[in-house]
Design brief:
307 residues; alpha+beta; D-amino Acid Aminotransferase, Chain A, domain 1; Dna Ligase, domain 1; 12 strands
């Protein structure tokens, strides 16, 4: 299909913990498409989303949802059944990539280094630690660092973790426990079949959590990252291999931890985001812009691949 003009439904909002981020992403996408002369329908997803899409009859849906059910295959399966074209990854890829444990099972056999660890029942944490401290606990299938806890020797969670202590164990029945990797936070976007740049994320205070990600000024983005060439190349290589092995479409973003005392052996892929943010603070638009791809062109390129 030509470069349009297209009739695009921008699907955003929903009811996950990442709703505000999705609304910001969706509005940015909608405005960019309108600036290029496309016809845009904004849809804030509710339980009647299939009826809305059937009424609108778009050429394509730009999926700007984050989290469940927009990023876990649920919405993708619905659109597959309806015969609607949509951006980003399809059903099977989405099911695997949202689940951090399934992602490991898919990628580690391809030689991609990921942290060890295993899924634990939250109840078991009140009896004792699943791994030697320090370790990380995170939900198996949430994004944007929602519900991540770093458990250290001198942390304030108690030993064992206190039943009444605030943390992700109060919100999720199961959590993924992984060894804590000291060092630096890196991320690489993939667009189509090309890995873009490497950004280092330097939170102004402590940990790159949900607030640090989406509050202006709380995290410094160093792009391109000031790291050795071999680490840049390894990030880009792993991000592209992960994108291809999982069958991602459009754009994805791979997040890494790098222990800079161990060289390339200290680089680990943490997760692959199949629907990375498109907000003004988001990392994929920032990397694209550094390569001369403006925001509206980025959005159009994602849609062209979907069509």
């Amino acid at each position: 299909m030509s470069r349009g003009p297209w009739h695009v439904a921008v699907l955003m909002g929903g009811w996950s913990a990442e709703r505000p981020v999705s609304l910001s992403s969706g509005e940015g996408v909608a405005k960019a498409l309108e600036s290029r002369g496309h016809k845009v329908m904004r849809i804030d997803m509710d339980r009647d989303v299939a009826l809305r899409l059937a009424e609108v009859k778009p050429d394509v849906v730009f999926n700007a949802l984050h989290g469940v059910p927009g990023e876990d295959g649920t919405v993708q399966g619905m659109m597959d059944l309806m015969g609607i074209k949509y951006t980003h990854s399809g059903l099977a890829t989405s099911v695997i990539a949202i689940d951090k444990q399934l992602t490991k099972q898919a990628l580690v056999p391809h030689g991609i280094a990921m942290p060890g660890g295993h899924v634990v029942r939250s109840e078991s944490l009140y009896e004792g630690d699943p791994l030697p401290r320090p370790y990380v606990l995170k939900p198996v299938n949430e994004g944007s660092s929602v519900g991540v806890a770093i458990v250290t020797e001198d942390g304030n969670y108690g030993s064992p973790i206190g039943r009444d202590t605030a943390g992700p164990w109060q919100d999720f029945e199961e959590l993924l426990a992984e060894p804590y990797i000291r060092g630096r936070e890196l991320t690489t976007a993939v667009l189509g079949d090309e890995a873009l740049l490497v950004t280092e994320l330097r939170p102004k205070s402590g940990f790159y959590d949900f607030d640090a990600k989406y509050t202006d000024g709380m995290t410094e983005h160093v792009c391109p990252a000031e790291i050795p060439d071999e680490i840049t190349q390894a990030c880009r290589d792993m991000a592209l291999r992960a994108h291809q092995a999982l069958g991602c479409k459009g754009t994805s973003r791979s997040d890494f931890r790098w222990d800079d005392e161990k060289g390339v052996d200290g680089l680990f892929l943490l997760e692959v985001n199949t629907q990375p943010g498109m907000t003004p603070l988001s990392l994929v638009p920032e990397q694209a812009a550094k390569l001369g791809i403006d925001y509206a062109e980025l959005v159009e390129r994602i849609i062209v691949e979907a069509l």
